[in-house]
Amino acid sequence: MSHTPQSPARHLRRLLELLAAGAPAEELGTVAAEARRNGATAEDLAEVEQATEAALRVHSTLRQHRRREAELTALFDTAGDLAALRDLDAVLRSIVRRARMLLGTDTAYLTLPDEEAGDTFMRVTDGSVSELFQNLRLQLGEGLGGLVAQTARPYATPDYRTDDRFLHTGSIDAGVLDEGLVAILGVPLLLGSGSGGQVIGALFAADRTPRTFAPDEVALLCSLADHAAIAIDTAKAMADARIALAELAEANAVIGEHSAAIQRAEESHDRLTDLVLRGGDVADVADAVAGLLKGDVAVHDGSGRPLTAVGAHGGAASGDGGGAPGGGEDGGGAAEAADLVAAAKRSRAAARAVFRDGRWVCAMLAGQELLGCLVLYGRPDLDGPDQRLFERSSVVTSLLLLLRRSVAETENRVRGDLITDLLTAPDRDPAGLVARGRRLGFDLDRPHILLAARTGGEARDRLADAAVQYLFGGGGVSAEHEGAVVLLLPPGGAGPGKAARLAAGQLGQLVGSPVTVAGAGPAAGPRAIADAHTEGVRCLRALRVLGRAGQGASVAELGFLGVLLGDHHDVDGFVTTALGPLLEYDAQRGTQLVRTLRAYFDCGGSLTRAKEDLHVHVNTVVQRLDRVQALLGPDWNTPEQALELQLALRLHLLSGA
To answer: Does the structure show a pLDDT above 80 at 188?
Structure first.
């Protein structure tokens, strides 16, 4: 079967159509074969073959141009990523992915040095399936990557396992084998150019089959590596800039806080100083400090007694009389006062405010003498500037207390002269004594409780100063007289016995030694006050004889001794105190407890004789005495109380009741 020869122009047109369509090189080669089958002459066949060779060259050139275009596009895209750099990891992943795509490799990866560990680690991988390979770490000079980092030059191997140009290690070879890599191309990430360039990592492209990497592929990977180096350097510069900006912002904030703290401290100092200069008292200072620090503030003296308080822990400013002598019994407040004194001593030792039991405590000092403490509630988060302000406030309060104490001591000495004259000669000029007292701000015509205090040893010299401290802010006055310290103070709701006990406890703490205190009054007027002093001195002597040194009491609390020592000899009061529960019980129920008790004592404590005297059964006597014990207490038959009961029974009998 013969074929009609076709014009070579038809085959040449076919080549152009295939080129235009982007057909593969294999299809271009079929045109010459087709011409041969169609019976082309030798001359026409030679022309078609020459045209095919030219078409193949054009095809190769077009392919290279397209590849170059794709590479340039990838480089431009990478440059765009760098220009909009936000996430370094995202940029590096994009570079590695493009390297794998452009070189047509099975995998690509990027390694960076670990400065702390002194080796290199996998930062980004693309196309990797081996966890062992992804976690590889390379020492400098180990494997192909170590060689790239050490020499700062690109290296390619068609078969990694048989290439002996670099140092093989067991861990690296195991990772490469687990990933299945054979051909590897690695290029350095360089900062700077020439011999002074710094290697900051390496970029790799690898295949799982043998392959020879062309020079243009090496150049392309080097270009991508340059972009990666720029990205890393830019990210580091941005990170350094962010750190610098953060440090600058922090420094500005610190400077701003410091400046604000200084300004606030100056304003606070001016405010507190102005308070003192205007004659403000401790309550005014406490109120100002509470406002400045946004908390509750209390001021306590050296023994822990409250002087004033502002806020929930003391109500409104209570004035200096908040801890006035003669107030309520200590009770649970004694432990509170002891805790505050302990905290104030810690503050004095540390020379700063201390936080204890949910409150800040700062000692108020005059030298090393503990004047008291400033207490702040409701601010557990007290920071540096506010803490320093709180500590400065304690200094201002200390100065105010010291100033007022000096004034009080001076006034007390003048008033003390008045008290001495009053006790020495109350009848010489009563009106003059009252007038002198009023000029000194002390009204002798108002009722006062008189306390006589005495201690022994070296503490005797400290007792007068302790009395001034004890009365400070309480409206009282003290003076030394005939070896004892005499205190006159407003009753304040407390009787002389309670006032004496409170004073004994507080004065004992202040002088560091037991102080015995006798109370008398209330008394108004020079003569009554002098009589109260006489009674107080007798009570003080009785306390010492009874072995009750260091305690406080009044004449009325000494039983029959009080009757003997008292000026008014209150027999009815003594009888009521001793027998009152029995008298009331008999009156309400018609019983004979008082008569039974008198018979019991008259019979020398014999139940048998007492029942004969009372004409009742002995069990009745026992039952009545049980009732006596229930009313008078279990100690009714002790020698001391039995003596008082017998005296009270005799006085009751003599009264004709």
So the answer is: yes
Q: What is the pLDDT of residues 215-266, one digit of tens each?
A: 888 888 888 888 788 777 877 777 788 888 888 888 888 777 777 767 766 6
Report the alpha-carbon distance of residue 188 to residue 224 in Å, rounded.
10
Spatial separation of the C-alpha atoms in residues 181 and 202, rounded to whole Å: 17
d(CA 358, CA 219): 71
- N-term to C-term CA, the chain: 171
Residue appearing with tokens 């013969």: 2
Q: Which residue has the tokens 């045109």?
A: 31
Instruction: Name the DSSP class of 568.
Output: S
What's the token pair of residue 301?
Answer: 């003296």
Q: Which residue has better confidence, 288 or 19? A: 288
| Residue-level pLDDT at 322 | 37
**C-alpha dihedral (635, 640, 646, 648), degrees to nearest 10:** -90
Instruction: Using alpha carbons only, give the angle 58, 59, 60 rounded to the nearest 5 degrees.
Output: 90
pLDDT of 545 reads 65
* Burial class of 6 by CB neighbour count within 10 A (0 to 12, 13 to 18, 19+): middle
Distance from C-alpha of 306 to C-alpha of 472, rounded to nearest angstrom: 12
* Distance of alpha carbon 454 from alpha carbon 482, whole angstroms: 10
Name the token pair of 538. 């007798």
pLDDT digits (tens, 9 = 90+) for 498-554: 888 888 888 888 888 898 888 888 888 888 888 888 888 878 877 776 677 888 888
Q: What is the distance between the alpha carbons of residues 49 and 218, in angstroms, rounded to a whole number?
A: 34
Rounded (5°) CA angle 513-519-520: 160
Biggest CA-to-CA distance, the chain: 175
Which residue in 351, 382, 354, 380 sits closest to 368, CA to CA? 351
* pLDDT at site 399: 78
Pairing between β-strand 183-191 and β-strand 198-207 as defined by DSSP bridges: antiparallel
Two tokens at 493? 């709701």
How many Å apart are CA 195 and CA 175, to the nearest integer? Answer: 32
Residues contacting 208, CB < 8 A, separation 6+: 106, 107, 179, 180, 181, 182
Q: Which residue has the higher pLDDT, 585 or 255?
A: 585
**Count of other CB atoms within 10 angstroms of residue 563:** 22
Predicted TM-score (pTM) of the model is 0.39
In angstroms, what CA-CA distances link 657 with 237, 266, 583, 599, 654? 109, 77, 11, 16, 8
What's residue 623's pLDDT?
Answer: 86
CA distance 293 to 379: 8
Return the structure tokens found at 487.
């205190």
Instruction: Yes or no: say if 187 and 218 are a contact pair by the CB < 8 Å rule.
Output: yes
Q: What is the mean pLDDT of the chain?
A: 78
Residues counted in the chain: 657
Residue type, 503: A
Q: Are 98 and 85 contacting, i.e. CB atoms less than 8 angstroms apart?
A: no
Q: How many CA atoms lie within 13 A of 497 on its CB side?
A: 9
At 394 the three-state DSSP class reads helix
Beta strand 369-377 pairing with 359-366: antiparallel
Q: How far is CA 646 from the centre of its chain?
A: 65
Cα 382 from chain centre = 7
CA atoms within 13 A on the CB side of 587: 7
Annotate 274-310 with b (16+ C-beta within 10 A) or e (fewer): ebbeeeebbbbbbbbbbebbebbbbbbbbbbbbbbbb
